[in-house]
Amino acid sequence: MRKILNKFILIFILPISVFSQENDFQTWASISASKKIIKKTNLTIKQGVRFRENSSLYSKLFTDLKIKSKYNKHFSFAIGYRFSNDWNKQLELSQKNRFYSDIYYKDKYKKRFLFDARARLQTQGNIEEYAATFRHKSALAYNIPKTKLEPSVALEYFLPFENMLIDKLRYTIGLSHPITKDLDAEIAYRIQQEFYTNNPQTLFIFEGKLAYDF
């Protein structure tokens, strides 16, 4: 377990990048509701909004619908759909569809450490063009003794099928805490890097989430 934790720490203290041409601070927020529809299967609806240009302008507004089924104590599977309104720097609006399928794996170590991994295959675009991407996210959370606070670290990479080169990385530090029995809150700080584009960005993101479980 110590080796795994040390690897996560090493990833986060490595130099991020000094070659990015653009930086931006963004704010992401979302609220979701999950309901059990049949045995071991939940339906989740999520509404999210994102702000760019130092959190002063709309970047994205989306609605996400997902069905997730638990296979056993370690593995779960999901399929989902997301519709989003995206605004570029000229505030021109484009609408996108995303279809995706997920495989989840989780395991506990020494009762207080939780390792969580998600592999996602998604295709996103509009009637003119769709692009497929593979994403993988690994996270490690720790339940602090005598409290419900749960800090976590995560790393996610994006691998487009078009060139099979990792073109985006996300590093995240988060903190979650239940507000009530059915309502959880989470805040996070994220750094997102882009690669292999004409104007790669480094984003510094503050994120807030509320999740309600019926």
Task: Describe the protein in words.
The chain has 214 residues and is mainly beta. The protein has one domain (2-213): Porin, CATH 2.40.160. Helix content is 6%, strand content 68%. It has one helix spanning 2-13; strands at residues 22-38, 41-52, 57-70, 75-87, 93-109, 113-125, 130-142, 150-160, 168-178, 183-194, 201-213. The chain has an eleven-stranded mixed β-barrel. Strand 2 (41-52) and strand 3 form a beta hairpin. The model is unreliable at 8-20 (pLDDT under 50).
Compile the SSE list and pairings:
Layout: H1 2-13, E1 22-38, E2 41-52, E3 57-70, E4 75-87, E5 93-109, E6 113-125, E7 130-142, E8 150-160, E9 168-178, E10 183-194, E11 201-213
Parallel strand pairs: 1-11
Antiparallel strand pairs: 1-2, 2-3, 3-4, 4-5, 5-6, 6-7, 7-8, 8-9, 9-10, 10-11
Output the keywords.
single chain; 6% helix; eleven-stranded mixed beta barrel; 68% strand; globular; mainly beta; 214 residues; Porin
Major β-sheet profile:
11 strands, mixed, barrel
The string of secondary-structure elements, in order, is: HEEEEEEEEEEE
Silhouette: globular
At the first level of CATH, what is the class?
A: Mainly Beta
The portion of residues assigned to helices is under 10%
Please identify the structural class as seen in this structure: mainly beta
CATH architecture heading: Beta Barrel
**Span between termini:** 34 Å
Q: What number is the mean pLDDT?
A: 90
Q: What integer value in Å does the Rg equal?
A: 18 Å
| Range of strand content | over 45%
Count up the helices. 1
Domain unit count: 1
Low-confidence segments: 8-20
Give the total of beta strands. Answer: 11
CATH homologous superfamily, by name? Answer: monomeric porin ompg
Query: What order do the strands of the largest sheet run in, or round the barrel if closed?
Result: 1-2-3-4-5-6-7-8-9-10-11
